[in-house]
Amino acid sequence: MIAAVITDHGAILPLVQLLAIGSLAGVQQNAASALRRLALDGATAVVIIAASAIAALVQLLGSASPTHVQQAAAAALACIVAAGGNAENASIIAAASAIPALVELLLAPGSTSEVREAEAGALANLADDADVAVTIAAAGAIPVLVGLLGSDSTAKEQEYAATAMMQLAWKNVENGAIITEAGAIPLLVQLLGSHFADVVQWPAAQALTHLTFKSLPNADTIASTGGAVPQLVRLLGLSSSAAMQEAALGVLMHLTYNIPQNVVTIAAAGAIPPLVRLLGRNSSAELQVAALEVLMDLSRRRNGYFAITIAAAGAIPLLVQLLLHGSSEKNRQSA
Q1: Cβ(284)–Cβ(265) under 8 Å?
Q2: What residues have CB less than 8 Å from 210, skipping those under 6 apart?
Q3: pLDDT at residue 335 in the model
């Protein structure tokens, strides 16, 4: 509501004009920060774009600007592209040559963590658009973003870099190959650890899901990375959110697909009890289907050995309930 009132009183254009080269750095920073906050309102973001703010903000990403101005400009661009999930905003920002400028800033020696966080956040939001994701990869951003997944990075850098990996790998085999070649898989597995916040773990798990889709080599790499499977099984636990459980299940489904040795690894990590629990009524239909997929792969292996373990974990009554009352046709077919 406040953003709308400010917009109605004609404040956007004067703020954009204050971004101009020649304004004091502190004025530019404050104007960019104000536009960032205003852009959280989707309707206001449209007005900001119409006032030619994008070109002015991209110009402030250049090396002539102080780091605090670069950070404010990048953060404003991140909010504008995220406003209302508007894919058109991403295309407009990309067309203004923002992506090379953002990548160059990430590569700049001596850049601060605050600047890197803002740059990575902007790229993560931009990568939500499939066409822009191709542009980001072509600009050489992926190896730089993979570097931000490491332990030397801040939690925000890791969060935004993992989110970018998740977006860039979505339905894009070429980007997935670049991400894998850049060494992202072991780093993403590390981000599944219990000492990381959900906002880091979730995009890391989603990125691994996308990277293992129809990629047996990547599935093997994850399964053979120390601690990966136990971490994924841990994320199926009661302390995890439904979104986290679903993300972990996505990876496990791809690990078990046509790779018998991974099935043994997953079962040995204690996956069967939490998978069976996820068949219960407290789980969403999506979780139930995903758990069923993994359990079916397990039950087909080792001459039915795991089927006995699954039954002993209490699966049969839950499967009957799904058959009788399942909320989706796929649930009933799987049961």
Answers
A1: no
A2: 166, 169, 170, 171, 176
A3: 54
Considering the entire predicted model, what is its pTM?
0.89
Looking up tokens 């650890």, which residue turns up?
193
Question: Residue 123 in contact with residue 77, Cβ under 8 Å?
Answer: no
Q: Which of 80, 62, 59 is nearest to 126 (CA)?
A: 80
Helices (H), 112-259: 113-126, 130-138, 141-147, 155-169, 173-181, 184-190, 198-212, 216-224, 228-234, 242-256
Averaged pLDDT for residues 121-150: 95
CB 210 within 8 A of CB 166: yes
CA–CA dist 267, 276 (Å, integer): 12
> Which residue is listed with tokens 């730089």?
144
Instruction: Report residue 126: phi and psi, to 5°.
Output: -65, -35
Longest CA span, the chain: 75
Q: How far apart are CA 34 and CA 3, in angstroms?
A: 10
Per-residue pLDDT of 52-71, as tens digits, reads 999 999 999 998 999 999 99
The three-class DSSP label of residue 21 is strand
For residue 308, what are the contacts with CB-CB under 8 A and spacing of at least 6? none
User: CA nearest 299: which of 329, 269, 334?
Assistant: 334
Question: What does the alpha-carbon distance between residue 50 and residue 206 come to, in Å, rounded to a whole number?
Answer: 34
Q: Tokens for 124, please give them.
A: 């993560």
d(CA 225, CA 219) in angstroms, rounded, equals 10
CA–CA distance, 297 with 78 (Å, rounded to integer)? 41
* Nearest in space to 326 (alpha carbons), one of 283, 293, 297: 283
Provide the token pair at 127: 């990568």
pLDDT tens digits along 227-271: 999 999 999 999 999 999 999 999 999 998 868 788 889 999 999
Length of the chain in terms of residues written: 335
What would the two tokens of residue 289 be? Answer: 């289907």
